[in-house]
Amino acid sequence: MDSLFTPYLVTGICSALVVACSLGxxxxxxxxxxxxxxxxxxxxSYWFGKGLEVDHDRFVQEGYDKYKSGVFRVANLTHWxxxxxxxxxxxLARAPExxxxxxxxxxxxLKMEYTFGLKFNDNYQVSLVQSTLTRxxxxxxxxxxxxxxxxxxxxLDLKHNExxxxxxxxxxLQIASRASNRMFVGxxxxxDPDWLDLNINIPHAIVAELKLLKFCPSFMLPLVAKVVTNLxxxxxxxxxxxxxxxxxxLQHMETEGTDWCDKPxxxxxxxxxxxxxxxxxxxxRRMIVINFGGIHTTSSTFSQALLNxxxxxxxxxxxxxxxxxxxSNHGWTNEALSKMRKVDSFLKETLRFEGSSLLGxxxxxxxxxxxxxxxxxxxxxxxxFPAYAMHHDGAVYGNPxxxxxxxxxxxxxxxxxxxxxQMVAVTPDLLxxxxxxxxxxxxxxxxxxxxxxxxxxxxxxxxxRKDDESVPNTLRMGDAIVPNPWLRx
Length: 489
Ligand code: HEM
Ligand SMILES: *[C@@H]1O[C@H](CO)[C@@H](O)[C@H](O)[C@H]1NC(C)=O
Ligand SMILES: *[C@@H]1O[C@H](CO)[C@@H](O)[C@H](O)[C@H]1NC(C)=O
Ligand SMILES: *[C@@H]1O[C@H](CO)[C@@H](O)[C@H](O)[C@H]1NC(C)=O
Prior knowledge:
Shape: globular
Strand content: 5-15%
Distance between the termini: 46 Å
Bound molecules: protoporphyrin IX containing FE, 2-acetamido-2-deoxy-beta-D-glucopyranose
Number of strands: 9
Order of helices and strands: HHHEEHEHHHHHHHHHHHHHEEEEHHHEE
């Protein structure tokens, strides 16, 4: 862009933003009838913005405790979020997209078109995750496990029983992204440091860009996004790495049809097989978006699990015994994982105890709605459930503030309901993977990767914390709960 125009453009954008924001405040859905927790107006929350980032969790918890059976709302600088009561979960799970929209709520948050270059409703990859990927888990298992073991050997690089300090978050990201990409794009790109680095760092870049974009009214997004996002930079870096792989496969498809010797069986190939798109740019963006959805969620859960393991050494032996027994009977297979109930429970408890967000099941009301308890929700309202508070409710979980790694394994053993207690089961008591139609389609893959990672760790390594106990395991960033990147163990 011509640098001469930049100051004018920036000034123009700023003044238009101010006007649009003030107009925007006037046109918000009227929520006066819903009680407020925390700052009493969006404007106040704006002024006390710094405090809000810190206090958001306190407000949500306060509202949860105060309005035991009702709804309340909290402000997050730009929007009111109406927090619903547990009794509305079933409605949310069944509501059609033109009543409560997952896609609009997600897009509101991520501005897909500008951050990923994909229209938010152009998402055929979601059904591939749900069906093809899940059905292929057993076939792909040996590859995924091979990648996890290779990644652990490479990044931990331990010889003769030594102790080594590692950054938990860094290691978890590397292993999770290699395991995922073995299945997303196959070997050898899944080991390409540049491809991994690109996908690991994109979320940081996008979060930074969204800090600016979220204050921008929608009609100005195209213009502002051109200035503040680096979509073209990351796309062209991605195309440089992935483009040659795609080209080669397209040539095969042209000359040899739908099948050929050594045809890859990975996510990229499943996308190509749909014949929905052949552009290197959009296929690359699609692989980036799938990385975005899969890597950090998995690695952050694994980081938290490792820290929980380091803090609960008394439980390591039980895990180790279980893994050794199952593997000696069934080998390392996807089917064997379903027999590792303690490993499963440990991870599920990690999701409950920490999780990745204070709020869950974010949806946008697409029409005026009256909830079963009579609460009126005007069109456009953003809704969510106070997931973290619900996961720590003593009425649902005994001793909720304690990490009890085998609480779900004990339940699994109780009776025929066993499989409904596993981590991949979505239930109103645990919202980590969502609920209803949009419940995370990648959770079967995530569970396979996470269980393999944890099982491999407990039989191969000892873990202890390096930093003292006062260093927190997770940090809060707005609604998000993220692993503390400075922790080592
Ligand atoms: C521990 C790891 C993971 C967690 C905690 C997680 C969590 C979630 C949650 C909470 C949702 C929204 C559900 C709702 O609001 O009802 C979601 C959606 C989604 N997740 Fe995951 N996820 C994980 C791993 C993955 C992986 C590995 C993939 C891909 C391979 C993936 C792909 C998706 C996709 C495509 C959606 C959107 C579904 C839709 O549009 O209907 N996730 N995930
Ligand atoms: C507030 O939450 C909404 C919905 O999740 C999101 O779109 C918006 O960007 C958030 N605003 C801030 C300042 O975090
Ligand atoms: C794996 O995916 C391929 C490609 O869609 C499909 O043809 C095959 O049936 C799947 N394998 C299994 C075991 O479902
Ligand atoms: C944009 O992204 C590319 C690829 O990740 C990177 O090399 C470049 O430095 C980025 N540009 C800016 C301005 O951040």
